[in-house]
Amino acid sequence: MKQKVQSFGRFLSGMVMPNIGAFIAWGLLTALFIASGYIPNEKLNTIVGPMLTYVLPTLIAYQGGKMVGGERGGVMGAIMTIGVICGTEYTMFMGAMIAGPLAGWIIKKFDKAVDGKIPAGFEMLVNNFSVGIFGLILAIIGFYLIGPFMGAVLTVLNAGVEVLVNHGLLPLVSIFVEPAKVLFLNNAINHGIFTPLGAEQVVNAGKSIFYMIETNPGAGTGVLVAYMLFAKDKITKTSAPGALIIHFFGGIHEIYFPYVLMNPLLLLATIGGSVAAMFFNTILGLGLTGPASPGSIIAYVGMAQKGQHILVFLSAVIAAVVSFIIAAPIIRFSNGKKSLEESAEQMKAMKAEAKGVSVDEVHTIDAVKAVAPADIKHIVFACDAGMGSSAMGATVLKKKLAAVGRSDIEVNHASVSDIPAGTQIVVTHKDLQERARKSAPNARLVLISNFMSAPEYDQLAQELANN
Prior knowledge:
single chain, mainly alpha, 4-stranded parallel sheet, 5% strand
């Protein structure tokens, strides 16, 4: 049951994350050109509504349909979602998350049913008209059924959110969010739940506090600073500053999870910091105009509403200070029996459980050296979402290859579920090996256990230099 919930959350976030750039563009458009924005512009303000109502839900639906039924599924999802959008007065992010995958599944089933049964020369006719006919039917169903139904659901959800906000209970959500982040449900929670809810709030208020719950980098910052000052283990103490820079400025929160797992009591620190910041945000009525992705202080403050940048920055400072005050004595008086390496291994096991894969089978770079061709030109670094850890790892690997004279090799990053066809080598975390094999069955896998300092980087770079 737990794995099904986690898989569902990852699927929801998978529809939103590839479109985060569009959400940010809309958030900046809102911050700049609405009547209360930095540069009020009546004409450009007319873009805000249509982009929110039509473009963003359609992008989500297309991605959801594509995830299930490929390109044809994406087109079907977009067609059906227009019907859903026009069937209610609400912004249909939730409706798009239903319509997109449903339409993709239907066309996928149709394609499977007629596979091998279409007379030669009629393939294009059947393909085009099947999408047109089924798309029309589903758009009508979306208009009369899904749109009104999701409108009723959103009425109830909005009432619940209003109760939380009016009674000052929203900060307590952090009690559940912070432990969930360490279980690698951060993307599912942030992009699968908070981003759509936040967009609904922005429509009415021009900002949303939901964008500030998971993305605040302050809580993790406090823990890392405490390790810098009070850690007993030398490796942990010296590695914390680098992790702090990547977390605070780069926005890759996964980097501090092993430090929390070294002593689970530190969850009290991250929860305390996050709750304190959310009380501050709630009391002052703060919010962001769009999602802060990644959760960097730059993105966090950059998406603040006009006149609130300093206050938004202070919310991160408050989270960091409270987190540090709680974490410092825990770290200082800890017996220090669990090392960072042991915690990293625990994190990997937890991440593997969250992704529903096995961690028993581990293949190292030596096990696959013999299959490496000498003319490698394309390497893909893959992580779960293809945006955070993989981007960081790809940067590190590029530098390693350049140092040995192989800057001619192209290194990209991608989601482990969407590795480009023709990829020769895939570098990924060992816990993602099963998904990587399914996504790129003909590629060589190089499996690592640490995105920042994996010895496999040097081994691979030297091997390719020798070739």
